[in-house]
Amino acid sequence: MDQMIAYEVVKFITNKRHEADTFEKISEKFHQLEQKFESRPLGDYLSILLEESIVRDVCQKSLSVFLLWDVYKAENLHLNPYLGCIYSKLTESASDFPLPNQFKVFMQRLMLHPERATDLLRMTLLQILNADMDDKSNETIDFSGVESALLKQRQCMPKSSVQSLSNVIPDPEKSSQSLSTEQYVQAMVENSEVLLSLRKPLHPELIRLQPPPMPTPQIGTAENSLEVPTEEFVWLNPPTLSHEFHWDSTMGSSQSAPKLEIQQLASLSLTVSLTVAQREELIRAIKDDCKSVSFSPENFSSLVSENPTIATEYLISIQSEDELDLFLAALLEMDLNVGLLEVINQTSSRIKLPNKFVLNCIPHVLTKCQSIEDKNAQMRIARLVCLFTMSWLRNKTLNINKSSIFAEIESFCLAFCKVKEANLLYRQVKNLESGTPVDKDS
């Protein structure tokens, strides 16, 4: 597989047609080749060809450097793993085959000014290499920004991964014959170990230092603290081990970890309405241990909409007042619907709600009802709101001694005067204002 990929990469960069193609088209073709070998990074083979000086043609070398940038152009520059290879080829001066200054200017603009990439990628390689260069353009070649990105990259890497040596040593005797890139690759891939070694350079081995010896009795009694102890600490591996098992006393009790079925039912109750059997099982688990079911104020609105009965049982089972306040506050952030009114009404009939929540709930409900656009739904909710408010007044859950709440309720009743329940609520509020006893059956 490695030999095949190497051949494909060399075949791509040695294709003379790419010299007249735009960089945008070259990028598109190379990404198609990447999809063919999706499990292998083609950039590794391009970097090998550059670092081992196998690619010597100016066009091929320029194309290889561009492709190493292109494969990670969507990421920040310092996240490109081939940035070191790109920088070394753009800044090398002692090479036998240096990159032309025209291409260096092109790569400088491409890497440091990504907003101009669209226009730059519409140019061809031949246009870049044949462009006229004046003295001013030569002076503007500055890769300090690329060097800064490279330093930032190396700061995030372990020092052992930055330092490496090639496993393959080049032959110091140069052949009199000039080999082409294809011939170099042919010689390289005939021995698969060479290609594999080039992909995995030699890194420094991580060596763990031996820990210092533990204090010994001789050190504690020695007259001179600088004296070398006569006895070294020896690591002892006991031949026999005796384990004593400590059983979990909460296993099988209500305090044990919740069953997987209960967790699945709790998650399901946030999306769909449960069946009667499922609802009873989840309510039983909530009554046994409220903490075994994980609901939060953020997802509580979904539970109220889909399974209001379960939401009521969960509120009743909460022991902490601070936690209860969080869930009650989540109710006031919901859109007004039948399920919300049912949960608030059922909860108030079984536990005493905080007075702060009660005083905030009524104005919230009245305001939300008046903002409903659907007239039929608004009339239905208005009837329920009136019955809900009358129930709180009869049970003295709502003790309105402030004229502001009286005024809000009266204004609401007048707005929905065509609703029978609104007239009954208006009469009940007036009786409370005048001190007339309220009929329990009204």
From TrEMBL:
GO biological process: regulatory ncRNA-mediated gene silencing
InterPro entries: CNOT11
Predominant location: cytoplasm
Subcellular location: Cytoplasm; Nucleus
Any one GO cellular component localisation term in the record: cytoplasm
Keywords carried by this UniProt record: Cytoplasm, Nucleus, RNA-mediated gene silencing, Transcription, Transcription regulation
Keyword Transcription tagged: yes
PANTHER family listed in its UniProt record: CCR4-NOT TRANSCRIPTION COMPLEX SUBUNIT 11
Similarity section: Belongs to the CNOT11 family.
Name of this chain's protein: CCR4-NOT transcription complex subunit 11
Organism: Hymenolepis diminuta
Highest classification ranks of the organism: Eukaryota, Metazoa, Spiralia, Lophotrochozoa, Platyhelminthes
